[in-house]
Amino acid sequence: MSTEEILFNVFMFLVFFLILFILLYILNVHKYKSKKKKQFGEIVYLVNKFQLDEKLLPKRKMLLWISILDAFIISFVGTFIFMLPIDYIWRFLIGFVFLFALIYALYEIYGRHLVNKGYQKGKKE
Known about the structure:
Order of helices and strands: HHHH
Strand content: under 5%
Number of helices: 4
């Protein structure tokens, strides 16, 4: 792979990341501000897995970080799969593996960060 191709792929990753981040953040904030107050699957997952106190969580800040994580996951997997010179079926299979691995790993790191910040149930600061 030449230097131009690598730079093009990095540029495309950054462009996809920024577009996805802006779009996801706007949609998440709109969903949060709606009168229905729907639950976010990501927040519910983090609250249940790490025993977080939902009342203490900074929801607006979490929406920002959830949007960043989701945009990074989607753009990284998309860019990586685009670079592979293999058949489409293998691209999809590798993409699903990377997708689930990144989702699990990044949300695990974010959940542990929230625990370290003191948002766990029963912890008093």
